[in-house]
Amino acid sequence: MQKATARAHPNIAFIKYWGNCDDDLRLPSNPSLSMNLAGAHTETTVEWIDGLTADDLEINGQPATEDASQRVSAHLDRIRKRLGIDVHAHVASENNFPMGAGIASSAAAFAALTVAAVAAAGETLTERELTTIARMGSGSASRSVPTGFVEWFAADTHEESYAQSFAGPDHWNLCDVIAVISREHKKTVSQAGHRTAMTSDLQPARVAGAQARFDICRQALVERDFATLATVVEEDSNLMHAVMMTSRPPLFYWLPGSLTVMQLVPEWRQQGLNVCYTLDAGPNVHCICTADAADEVRSRLQALSEVVDVRMTTPGGPAEVTR
Amino acid sequence: MQKATARAHPNIAFIKYWGNCDDDLRLPSNPSLSMNLAGAHTETTVEWIDGLTADDLEINGQPATEDASQRVSAHLDRIRKRLGIDVHAHVASENNFPMGAGIASSAAAFAALTVAAVAAAGETLTERELTTIARMGSGSASRSVPTGFVEWFAADTHEESYAQSFAGPDHWNLCDVIAVISREHKKTVSQAGHRTAMTSDLQPARVAGAQARFDICRQALVERDFATLATVVEEDSNLMHAVMMTSRPPLFYWLPGSLTVMQLVPEWRQQGLNVCYTLDAGPNVHCICTADAADEVRSRLQALSEVVDVRMTTPGGPAEVTR
Predict the structure, then answer these.
(1) Which of B90, B102, B112, B222 could join B8 via S-S bond, C-beta 3.0 to 4.6 A?
(2) Which residue of B has its CA nearest to A256?
(3) What ipTM score was computed for the predicted complex, to two decimals?
(4) Can you identify the CATH homologous superfamily of domain B174-313?
């Protein structure tokens, strides 16, 4: 087999990844936890072609930018090294969701790329190893390899910083109702942002508390305890953005409309709706809610002039070879 | 003399006060630094009246709320104790600016109250002692007693946590161009907010860096170095709001319109305008600028739909007895 296609979902972090102890290996400063998003995916085909003089990447049918091509090629280098091959590849990737606007496109992209590239070479690796390889392409991509609700461990070594599922997508029918505030591509890509994390005086304190929040969040998910989940998810999101906005230079991912939604969601929860907010490195607000609250959350979001679109998604499966 | 009137200006902090080591004495967790605001003032008349059975307070010609009356009476108790008197007072206070919306009304109020009450009793205290008494009424009131640019020291004892001027109002013709985002009274008064500061995991790190920021800011003011001032003022404001929004429960003082202005101001600075932002415990954005930039800043703010009013003020003098 020289060619394979894999599909992976993006994920929304409930406990955030922000900052590395090791930038080259992308060993994260803290453990994180996420839910795959069924409603969105990246599908990537990798074809290893003898005689090709360089890797070649297209995204959504267009030749990729120089930056994207280099990042993908660097990732293929890691896979070539691991598999002991010396061939270049043609890579074609399709997203069914907008890139760079708060839905983690690089997570799905590097998860799908890793799984497709290994399969195309006719190799079989453990899921655990696939998560560590994907991690080196984009940290949160490690969490898009396993299914459903996923934990990614912080560790000192490449092998120990892996991700695994702790509950399948059917464990709890949560919804992520995404309030799209802007479709513009964000100014600072997450990769660059991670490097600024340690310039914030607040990052050590955020990291110091992360394991405790991780434990609370994981247990709340296991026990389907929404009230506990809501508090820790919002707190963890606020902590990450607090670090971002106190970095040097400061990073503000929120737009005014993000704040509008962030201020309404806790009020809705006080009114009895099971909903909480979380924001990745972008302006869109992920409103995490129980299935019974999802339609109401969607219609309330749609009524806001600051919200340009609403997407609704349920827990997603693992990265998989599709053909 | 049984009756005296004093006038005091509010102040805008460049290095923020947030959180106490001692709530009763209002000994602050960190040193802070501010500029008095000439364009706004509180004028307070205190009359000590023999035979009055209780203190009596009116604000802007109306009987004050129970909460405000109790807080003023508690402050008069401190002054009675210090001066060795046992008389109640009629207090009438007038503000020429809206209360509770980001302009520190309690600072001007407790500075004027302290100065008027002492003068009405026919006593003369040092400015240093007046700042420590005012501090117990409202922490930042200590900074509204001296003139111009004022530093307030963090210390372990009542006597050592005083404020003093390090430059008069004529030292540097900075302007505070205030973008009024909302005239609504804020939901959480600062007094309650200060008590939540230590519930944020980030407060120790903010406090740990405060003396360094204070030193940088003070020197930038002494040297009239706007670029340095701008960076440290915005950073310190962001740090305080980072602590607020990660407190338990979280406190969000920003409104969407606050964020609009906060995102524009650094862009304007990059375009060559000497302006930076800072926000107290409220949604209004204080745009600190050099005098030559003030008209341009004002007209740019007035053009924003989120800005309901713009006020412009220069450095102010001390709290003074007016009659």
Answers:
(1) B112
(2) B256
(3) 0.91
(4) GHMP kinase, C-terminal domain (3.30.70.890)
